[in-house]
Amino acid sequence: MKLHNSTKTPSPTTSNGGTDRRKILRSVGSLSVVVIAGCSSDGDDSGSSPVSRTDGSPESNESSERAKTDLDPAMLERRARNFLTLQSDGSFEAAHERLLTPTAADFSVTDMENSWQQIVTTSGEFESIVESEYQKRTDGAALVIVKTAFARVRNTFEVVLTRKGVQSYQITAQEEYSWEQPSYVDTSAFTETTVTIDATTSCELGGTLSLPPDEAQVPGLVIVHGSGPIDRDGTFGPNKPYKELSWGLPVVVSPYCGTTNGPTPVMLTVQT
C-alpha cells in the first residue's frame, strides 16, 4: 500500500462534556447489549383466527374499535415509551410482562435488569425520552424508534411490537460525544499529516500520520483496527484511543479508517 499525504498542524480540541472517558472505555462492546431474540408471530398461541362480525352489534363495534386502537401508531409509540420508562424506573418485572411469551422465555427479568445496568454503566443515568417515531409495520409487527437522553450520551432504541406485546428491542445508535484532549498531549511536539492508503486500485482508505519534528529516523507504528467499519481515531463514545496513542507516542504513528470489505494489507510505504 502507498500513502499520499498533505501536512497540517494539529490544533487542541476541548469539550464541554467532562465525560470520564476511561470508565466508558472499559465498557467497550457492551453498548448494544439489549438485543433479544424476536419471533415472527405475534404471540397468539390459539392458532385460530378471530371471527369477523359486520352486523353492527355492540360486540362487532367494540372489536373493531379495539383493533383500530391496537394498530394506532400513537398507541404503539406510547407502549414503546412506557416499556423503556418502566426499566428506567427499575420496574423490571412490569416491563418484562410487556414481552411476548416466546421472548420472555428466553430473556428473564434478571437478564433485562442486567442489560439495563450495562447501558447505564456506559451511558450514565437515564434522564428522559426525547422523542419517539412510529416507522412501519412488517409481518404484523410495528417498529418504533425511541430517542433517549442519558447523562453522558443519547441512545436510540428500536422497539418492535405486535398488538400483544414487545417482540424485541435494541440500541441502534449513539450520539457522538465531544472529545476532550488528554492532558499529557503537547501539540507542539509533533505534526499531523493526512494520508490516503492505496489498498488496491479500487480501494482507498483515509489515514493520519503523527510525525515528531526534526527527526532523521524514528520508529514507526501502524495502528490496525478490529473488524468492521471504524474511523481512524477508533472513536467510541467520548473516546478516541487511536488518536490519543498517536498524539502521545514519540514515534511515527499511522491509524487509518477501517472498512468492511477489502484486502489484508501486507506492506506499507510511507511517502513524506
From TrEMBL:
Residues 1-18, 39-49 have a biased composition (Low complexity). Residues 63-74 have a biased composition (Basic and acidic residues). InterPro entries: AB_hydrolase_Est10. Residues 50-61 have a biased composition (Polar residues). Coiled coil: none annotated. Residues 1-24, 39-74 are annotated as: Disordered. This is Lipoprotein. The lineage of its organism: Archaea, Methanobacteriati, Methanobacteriota, Stenosarchaea group, Halobacteria.
